[in-house]
Write a structure and sequence with these properties.
The protein has helices at residues 18-26, 42-56, 114-123, 138-153, 178-193, and strands at residues 3-8, 33-38, 60-66, 73-80, 107-109, 128-133, 159-164. By secondary structure, it is of the alpha/beta class. The structure holds pyroglutamic acid (PCA).
Amino acid sequence: MRILLTGFTTFANHGVNPSQRIVDALEESRADLITAVLPVEYGGAGERLRALMAQHQPDAIVMLGLAASRTAINLERFALNINDASLPDNAGDHPRGRPIVPDGPAAYVTRLPIDTMQQALAARGIPAVISNHAGSYVCNHVFYVARHALEQSGSAIPCGFIHVPPIAEAGDQPGLPLAVLVEAVDCCLAVLRQPQHEYPETV
Ligand code: PCA
């Protein structure tokens, strides 16, 4: 199974984006991983993601991003058809209430086995919750763009978004150590590699 795993560069006042560090840590770990770090730009990230999908034709897509205010792994359930954030992106684009795909569906549901992933994470003692949506900034944007592209092409491959908290060592905010974040994502990828996404005995 060839899995496309993406993270993001830094943005706003976040010195480090844990999603980039996780991707860097895992990129050499398995031959089945295709990794990329996306710019925190609505247009640029969507374009890059579509190009990666077209080039590699992955069997699964897992996108990662930082959710600075969260303290657990957040398995995202829905991507919303809206770009709307108080913060501009890294290219200065600052949409408010702008649909991602005019006339597209209001939301797409994840195609990741998030319940099984949550159980697998809990079994390892890693705090993980299901979050109903990925916000309305660039993370939600790429989640929607990927799901829309798959829907348009009639593909039903696993595809979804996981938000991670900050790296605990990196600042004064609560978070999780980088090693735990890496283990969490590795654990989610192991779930995907199981036939029918059964609960993995060993990951
Ligand atoms: N988090 C932001 C964008 C990039 C990232 O890592 C978000 O939650 O939209």
